[in-house]
Structures are given as structure tokens and as C-alpha cells.
Amino acid sequence: MTIAPADFTCTLYSVADHIATITLNRPERRNALNPRAYAEIEGAFKAASADPDVRCVVVTGADPAFCSGEDVKEMMTGEGGAQTRGAAQVPVKYAPTPAAMAALECEKPVIAAVNGSAVGWGMELALYADIRIASTNAKFAELFIRRGLICDVGGLLRLPAIVGPAKAAELLFTGDVIDAAEAGRIGLVSEVVAHEELMVRALGLARRIASNSPLALRYMKQGLARTAYGDPREVGSWAIEVIYRLFQTEDHREGVRSFLEKREPVFVGR
User: pTM of the prediction?
Assistant: First the structure.
């Protein structure tokens, strides 16, 4: 289900000066994602990609968070486990997450302005951007391992290319949270700025990018995708199949329970 910007309820979408700004807008839930939010993210990136007036995209979150991942209370409780990133619980065909592919296949350069916590699928979303700028309030974590799951295409495909395989393995295997300063040190983000300066810097960079040839920008982005990253559809399909299997495990249910009960998980390998 793709939702057009005119029908958004938990995402803000605007276009000005050839820049599309996508703002996740569930601040009361720290911009946690439910199926509708996933569908709106997909719709926003598809709208930006299809709009000839858009030359650059900025994605951010309504304070205090960028995106705190999936809405666990809404999506990940119950015996059957969570829905697969907004897809049906029992997929007919394993395929990459539609929201992820819409972000990855957006033809316009994408800047993530990370204003707060970007954890779980929130970190995935930041990784789908071509450039990341963080405020001093930002935090990053691939928390999937703490829920008995694996990450999506961002962590598996893009994170190793950005920070190197060993550092990516450390972040993925531990689920550790890192702050903006560490993210800058390892090259996860291009720049760390004061919180109040974040959107000014992100939009300033977007304007510089948008002043260039739209055709050249599109081909430059395609060229980088060919040289820097692998095939997201192949990796994404494999990841969704594995994630669906993990949803059925005791470890996943323990990961969910421990989160809701605010305690450390005790995994048993089943």
C-alpha cells in the first residue's frame, strides 16, 4: 500500500527551492513506525523521485527523535510476532521492504538530517541516505540483535561500505548505541553540528546540490550505487525471508518481552 503525500497523517512532506523535505511526524511515539508510517515513507520517496521539480531530498524527524524504529507496542506484541516492516505477516513472496527500496531507488540525492535517536529501522533509514548530518543530540544503534532479529538492507549492505566491515560487524553483533561524536569519528555521518543548526546546514547543502544539473545528479547517484554498494533487491529479499523465520522464534518473543518489561533479554537459541 503506497500512500500519496496528500493523505499523509504521520509524515510531513513539502517541496521548496527544488528540495523535498520528508519529516517523520509521530513525536509522541518518538517517530516510531507502524504499517501506515512505512507506507507513507514509501510514498514520500516515490513522490520526490517522480517530481521533476525536486532535485534533492532531506529526511528528518520531528523532535525529539529522528526515528526510534518500529512501534514495538503496536507491531511486535502477541504470539505471532511483528509484521514484516509493514508487509503482511505471512508473505506470499519474500521481497525487500517497500519503504527501503523506495528510499534506495529514489533518483534524487538524499540527505538524512539526524536530529535525535536513529535506532533499529531508524538507523536503517539514515543509512539509505547518500549523506548523513547529525545534531549533537543524535544517537545510532542497530538494535535488531537485541530483539532476536537481523537488520534490513541498510545494515547488511550499506553500513559495511560506510564504516568498514569490522566496525559494521561490531555494531550489528552488539546492538550498541553510539553518540553523534562517535558516529562522526567512524565516518557514519559527514558532519556533527549543534542541534539548532541542523536543518540550516542540511538545507544549505541541499541547495548547493540542487543548483547542479538534475540529469547529471541522477547519473552521478546511479554511478555511486554501482560502485559503492551491492544489489539491494537480492540482499533485501534474503533478509526479509530470514526476518520472517526469526519472527517465529522464542528468542524473538523474549526480545520483545524484555523490551516491554525494561530488562535484559535471556536468549535460549530457539
Answer: 0.91
